Amino acid sequence: MSTDSNRFPFFHEAKAPGGAEGWESMYPYYLVPSEETRAHEDAQFWFADTMHWSRGCHPFDSIGAEAVYLGVGTFSTRIFALPVSLGLDVRVKNGYVYISPLGVTDPERIQERAAVFQKRAGYYYANWDELYGKWKTKMEGAIASLQSISFQKLAEYDPDHVVDEARGRSDAMALTENYHRLIDEFFAIWQYHFEFLNLGYGGYITFFQFCKQAFPLITDQSISRMVAGVDVLAFRPDDECRRLAQLANDLGLVETVTAEGTTDQLRSALEATENGRTWLASFDETRDPWFNYFTEYGFTHDQETWNSNPAIPVGNIASYARKIAAGEDISRPIERLRAERDEIVDEYRALLTADEAKQFEELLGLARTVFPYIEEHNIYVEHWSHNVFWQKCHELAQVLVDAGFLANADDMFYLNRFELDTVLSDVVQSWAIGVEARGKARWAAEIERRKPIVAALQAASAPPAYGIPPQEVTDPFAVMNYGVTTERVNDWLGASDGESKTLNGIPGSLGIVEGPVRVLRSEKDLPDLQPGEILVAPITAPSWAAAFAVATGVITDIGGMMCHAAIVCREYGIPAVVGTGFATARLKTGQRVRIDGKAGTVVVLDDEPAGTTTDTRAEDLGVPAAG
After folding, report:
1. pTM of the predicted protein model
2. Which domain holds residue 512?
């Protein structure tokens, strides 16, 4: 490991976890650090993308690392030409995905790229609503295209229509063709994903920078609250849970939906009464599309959706129903947020000249225009699209089981996408010839070798970073989504000795709270969260919204001002510190901490007396005195 306090360890200095030796062979060669690329890798700064891959990924699941960073690179580097940023380079180290922002420093090249960016981004900003509408249509078409892909079992004989229609080719050819189509559609969807995203972050950053220059004392929180209270699609699944909880209350079904038991038992109980059947009809109507919703971000094959495990939304509904029965208001405080938002805007606008106020209004308008995409896009991509993608992958895996190539469907995900392509060719050719697939024994042995390796990788934690930190982090995606700022990187370096009682992060949402923490490694741990606890996680996903009705505060390892955890906590009025880098590694369930959502700090209290939430909204306007 590195003894240089000015940098993180290099990739080549980090050893594999015990039992994971030889992990490198599982992934495409260009995703793995190598001796040939060592000089480049040592010169870069790499941070863990535990937002999307909270644990070491299976070989096939690394496809996301390819598609995502092809998409961001294409639009940042080649299409919109961000003036000071290229794409994000990507590697897999010990099973975890790491990315590296690539900046542009040559003044002439920056000027050249700025001219391209101004023209192309300007067109999108000027026509945002129209183009965003077209984007939604494209995404709906892409999802429908994914849904139309079919993987059929290889039968003893080709079906009659091959002869009756004189097709002249076997239906088995569709197995490899549809696999290629599935992969191509997945990559295309991730192109669409980044068509608007960096422009969205850019619109917010431009407003952010204007405010910092015009109001030197303004807090990051005050700026972010000026775009709060915007109703977006991302809140709809949780809103549906609230609606169904209210409907259960109105129909006198609170005891039924909150009773202990399985979802099958709940359905049977509801089907026995007219009001129960009414509620069930509403629940079933809601499921598509609103419960096609991953419990994390949908980047791994083994994540559940609310539809695949209806106990998840039923649990959320029951939690809200209990609150309603207890007389609590479960609605999001959106009107309060809008009133506070408008108050902040009025206070700051009054400090500007007429020309400055006009520019302020224009930039604020742009920030509010682009904000819905920042939150809504992952409904279309990470949830609805990935839901279909993984369904099709599981269908394909079953075909390989039925063909006798795999012992279990989950075994397919121990192959990377190129290996799977080879396997499919083997299976189809062997079926056509009439022999057993030639690679069956070879791949069965390799899959068994890989299983304990993947388990060892997933049991280990991901260091927050590798390599040499830049003098300044300029990539908007890294800053706004991941919270990887120059200050945060320096904090990570300073905190690497583990002795400090304070963790520094990004101020995500206002408020001060003291209490015990509950460290959650994944969505499977959510049922462990108890009322009054502070939720600590690598990152939170959109589907965790119901947990915010239980937690008194939120701390994450990764995330920036525009990450989901920060946005949702602001909308729900819960204190949050995001992007701490080390929270899940440093904190243990039951430890008491104090989080300050304005300062972005987490202080470990150990056995100090418990505190209570302090509402600091009135003081946190941060408006400098006029004149």
Report:
1. 0.89
2. 500-621
